[in-house]
Amino acid sequence: MLLEVKDLRAVVRPEDENEEDAGVREILKGLSLSIASGEVHAIMGPNGSGKSTFSHVLAGKPGYEVTDGTVQFKGEDLLALEPEERAARGLFLAFQYPVEIPGVPYMQFLKVALNAQRKLRGEEELSTPDFMRLIREKTQQLGIPMDMLRRAVNVGFSGGEKKRMEVLQMAVLQPSLCILDEIDSGLDIDALKIVADGVNALRSEDRGFLLITHYQRLLDYIEPDHVHVMVRGRIVRSGGRELALELEREGYAAYQEAAA
Amino acid sequence: MADQETLKTVRELEKYKYGFETHVETEKAPKGLNEDIIRFISEKKGEPEWMLEWRLNAYRLWLTMEEPRWAKVHYPPIDFQAIHYYAAPKRKKGPKSLDEVDPEILKTYEKLGIPLKEQEILAGVEGAPKVAVDAVFDSVSVATTFREELEKAGVIFCPISEAIQKHPDLVRKYLGSVVPPGDNFYAALNSAVFTDGSFVYVPKGVRCPMELSTYFRINERNTGQFERTLIICDEGAYVSYLEGCTAPARSEHQLHAAVVELIALDDAEIKYSTVQNWYPGDAEGRGGVYNFVTKRADCRGRNSKVSWTQVETGSAITWKYPSCILKGDNSVGEFYSIAISNGRQQVDSGTKMVHLGKNTKSRIISKGISAGRSQNTYRGLVSIARKAHGARNFTQCDSLLIGDKCGAHTVPYIQAKTPHAKVEHEATTSKIAEDQLFYCRARGIPEEEAVALIVNGFVREVIQKLPMEFMAETQKLIGISLEGSVG
Ligand SMILES: Nc1ncnc2c1ncn2[C@@H]1O[C@H](COP(=O)(O)OP(=O)(O)OP(=O)(O)O)[C@@H](O)[C@H]1O
Ligand SMILES: [Mg+2]
User: Fold this and answer.
1) Segment A172-212, tens digit of pLDDT
2) Is the CB of B442 less than 8 angstroms away from the CB of A112?
3) What parts of chain B have a pLDDT lower than 70?
4) Phi and psi torsions of A128, nearest 5°
5) What separation in Å is there between the alpha carbon of A96 and the centre of ligand 2?
6) Which candidate, A1, A153, B49, B213, has a CA 20 to 30 Å from the CA of A243?
7) In this complex, how many residue pairs, one in chain A and one in chain B, have their CB atoms less than 8 Å apart?
8) How far apart are CA A177 and CA A141, in angstroms?
9) Nearest by Cα to B345 from B7, B75, B26, B102
10) Per-residue DSSP letters for B124-145?
């Protein structure tokens, strides 16, 4: 199994550690999910149900504390690893809100990231010509002008551009598990098609996907094998492609009531 | 108070007038400072009478002056009588090979990607230059080629003591014309006792055929405690000069008080870059270098231009304000600064832009990064004289904090005596955002590397002003100087 999440519980710690424990909130409340290589899974669910939190906990974002449950990634205890180690082992999170880093050219960021991962894996650094070849190929596939890579990471990028760049990073880093948090939000119709093509091009037997989305439209382009409904920090129902269509028609009302 | 004591010591020493002369063989003057020591230094250097008088005058001024205390730095009182003001210029016995060099220093060289041959020279390994001669691409012969090239162009580039001998007219005309001996306490001290330093004269219309940084890059200088640098760019001339080194500099002296004077005549341009990486002391701030420098440029000519670019990462205490006197009409002064403080370092640095001529322009970009328990102050003055119509200044001071035990302070002074001027000031203070760090780490970049990446982005504007061959090294240096600042 590529990813195996069992009964995961996680809380948010307030910024100030000295604050009363009253500030602690449980967001993930016993979440279980398994993804095999080659599969595409989609998670849908109402706002605030914990979808992004789940992706953050998987990527190792500080500020969350796992209180119960286990996460195995390629047979390893994922939760024991630093975020950069998770990335080097092939976990990739496309952020719902990509972060700006002023003054750092995108090109440099990508090169540093790629080589940092290779170093952590004990591989040789990629030479500049090889790196440039890789970048040229991937930017062409995604219809991203090279000029954008000379700009600082995400600074002044439009919402859609940021999302497209996340997919570029994914294409360059070649992870084995791709978590895409609302990669479709903010994309125009053409961009959605391009991004979906980019993702589809990466689909392979040794790679798994977890799509977080609100819109079944994305799933027209990237066809999932499994669809899960997440409500209040739990997967409350799983099904096939048709579940997304059903949700689109009927909303989450029935699940909300059941969970309450 | 301190002056009283100095006087007393001086009087006592006078009883033993020339009493130390028997020690001449050892090439070392006794500790302390008095007129005889200055005579001794001047004699050792074989200086003409006017130079000795100049030094003595500076010394007498120094006796009347007080140590400045206005900077936001704290240190125990310095005993100026406990310092040797003259020691043999001969090299101390160096390590026999790199095996004997402090592994910490070697690690840093490695991180900076400095070639092995240069490492030996930098670490002062005995006989290193000779070793280099045998190499195919040896630095010594390259240096010789450079020297010939400079001579052909008519550029004078030599130690200041040699210039005093060989080019007395130029030295007499310009030395102290920008930083007069009585300018401040440390400048006066430097004027009295300086023994090392560089002299550069670029004749009319000559564009110095190479960056003098290239020369230093392979020809590490043994920097003295009281350095004196004088650079003159004649009409229409251009020179780029880099002082210092990205490699960590060990110093035998705790107090460094250099004076740098730049003179730009009509249509001349000087680019002066500094990379300062003196020993900052241990984690508790013990033993680091006190760096009290006076650097000033005189844009004397019309359309002249001086750019100061500095990367300050070392020293326990830095007290430094490279300035521009914009005398010539249309002259331009620029100050680009990166000041990084970590551990217990204290930095009080900035610039002074003094607009005297018409349509003079100045631009100040200061990037301060504070980490650990350090204190980092930008102190700047923009002054615009009544007659400086059309003067313009733009100042941008950005501070970045890493952790919550350090401090960043911005102290801008603006004095505009004419309404026909435009002064703009922008300042920001920010922290490295957790979001940025996590974003980098989620892409596989370890935390310290991520901090270095983000900080390098923060200072990018200034890095780009450095000579090409130093840009990459400086980026690495920034990472190294911030090590241990997170986690
Ligand atoms: N760092 C935090 N501090 C406080 N509350 C948090 C934090 N992170 C998440 N939460 C809370 O946890 C809940 C789940 O948030 P999350 O972002 O995971 O939702 P989501 O399912 O991704 O929603 P959306 O569809 O709107 O993106 C929300 O109520 C949110 O306010
Ligand atoms: Mg979300």
Assistant:
1) 999 999 999 998 888 888 888 888 988 899 999 999 999 99
2) no
3) 1-29, 87-145, 213-224, 245-253, 283-286, 469, 486-487
4) -60, -45
5) 6
6) A1
7) 83
8) 20
9) B75
10) T-TTHHHHHHHSTT-HHHHHHH
From the list B65, B73, B272, the residue with the least C-alpha distance to B183 is B65
C-alpha B328 chain-centroid distance: 25
CA-CA-CA-CA dihedral for B71, B74, B77, B80, to nearest 10:
-50
Q: What is the pTM of this model?
A: 0.80
Distant-in-sequence, close-in-space partners of B212: CB < 8 Å, separation ≥ 6: B157, B200, B239, B240, B241, B242
Q: Is B152 exposed, middle or buried (0-12, 13-18, 19+ CB in 10 A)?
A: exposed
B418-B421-B426 Cα angle (round to 5): 120
Confidence of residue A230 (pLDDT cuts 50, 70, 90): very high
Q: What ipTM was estimated for this complex?
A: 0.94
> What does the block give as tokens for B42?
């001047």
Q: Which amino acid is at B103?
A: P
Q: What gap in Å lies between CA A227 and CA A243, rounded to an integer?
A: 6
Distance from CA of B484 to the nearest CA of A (A): 17
C-alpha A53 – ligand 1 centre gap (Å): 6
Q: Pairing state of beta strands B156-159 and B198-202? A: antiparallel
Do residues A208 and A40 touch, judged by C-beta distance below 8 A?
A: yes
- Which structure tokens are listed for A249? 């028609």
Nearest to B378, CA basis, from B392, B391, B390, B367: B367
